[in-house]
Write a structure and sequence with these properties.
With 55 residues, this protein is mainly α. 78% of the residues lie in helices and 0% in strands.
Length: 55
Amino acid sequence: MRKAYEREFEEATQAARNGDMRANATLTEQAEALLKEIEHFNRGLLRNFVPACSS
């Protein structure tokens, strides 16, 4: 999922460099949605994380 985010973000950057602000906005929005999914997934992992007890 992280690679998909990076790919979308890179495409958005390229669109901006090429002056295509509409594509940049769309791709940035998609990249941000992926980032939110990643963060949501990571929060779920942290919530369920139980540290090992050292004896």
